Automatic annotation (TrEMBL):
NCBIfam families: rimI
Organism superkingdom: Bacteria
Domain N-acetyltransferase, chain residue ranges per copy: 12-157
Molecular-function annotations in GO: N-acetyltransferase activity
UniProt keywords, alphabetically: Acyltransferase, Transferase
UniProt cross-references to Pfam families, sorted A to Z: Acetyltransf_1
Alphabetical list of InterPro entries matching this protein: AcTrfase_RimI/Ard1, Acyl_CoA_acyltransferase, Bact_Acetyltransf, GNAT_dom
PANTHER family attached to this UniProt entry: AMINOALKYLPHOSPHONATE N-ACETYLTRANSFERASE-RELATED-RELATED
Name of the protein in its database record: N-acetyltransferase domain-containing protein
């Protein structure tokens, strides 16, 4: 998929997420993840949680995407990535993911890990395009529906990523 009009991601501004963003995040979270969405309380706790780094993508002053990383002192874990449905396919997800990977490098992570639904084609394209490789399959990882997850890894110690 190519950018629809070339306007993104140049017009997108990345910034740290704040607790004040939770009401908007809450709406995005429900739009993007449906029954699997985090609760309002989980979102509020997560964005300020220990070792967490959350970034938002703004377009014209409105949050249209967000992503989060957890660094445990050794490895980094992608906690979430999401782009508002009406702005998908224009490079915002990749911009957010690149920001997470950049942060992982800055804090000295060896690898970046993540889980993704095996049927989530857009996310799989996003991650493989950024150099992530499949590690293994976790059975019935996602509820509801018992959907399997791929675990994926980006090795930051390789020179070419
Ligand atoms: C996954 C997601 C974050 C991608 O965001 P995005 O802003 O559309 O991503 P980008 O525009 O940077 O595109 C990244 C890749 O995904 C592909 N992609 C985006 N939308 C797609 C779609 N509907 N179908 C297939 N591929 C798609 C793009 O083509 C691109 O791949 P390419 O580099 O090979 O062309 C977005 O689809 C989303 O928010 N989905 C719902 C939440 C979710 O599933 N998050 C991931 C949880 S693990």
């Amino acid at each position: 998929m190519t950018p629809a009009d070339g306007a993104y991601p140049q017009d997108v501004v990345l910034r740290a997420l704040r607790v004040e963003d939770v009401p908007v995040l809450d709406v995005l979270e429900r739009e993007l993840f449906g029954p699997a969405a985090w609760s309002t309380q989980s979102l509020a706790e997560e964005i300020v949680g220990p070792g967490r780094w959350y970034v938002g993508a703004e377009l014209g002053g409105t949050l249209v995407g967000y992503a989060g990383l957890w660094f445990d002192g050794e490895d980094a874990q992608v906690m979430t990535v999401g782009t508002s449905e009406q702005h998908q396919g224009r490079g915002i997800g990749r911009l957010l993911l690149d920001a997470l990977v950049g942060r992982a490098r800055t804090v000295g992570a060896r690898v970046v890990l993540l889980e993704v639904r095996v049927d989530n084609e857009p996310a799989l394209r996003l991650y493989t395009g950024a150099g992530f490789e499949r590690l293994g399959r976790r059975r019935a990882y996602y509820q509801p529906g018992n959907v399997d997850a791929w675990t994926m890894r980006l090795d930051l110690q390789q020179a070419d990523v």
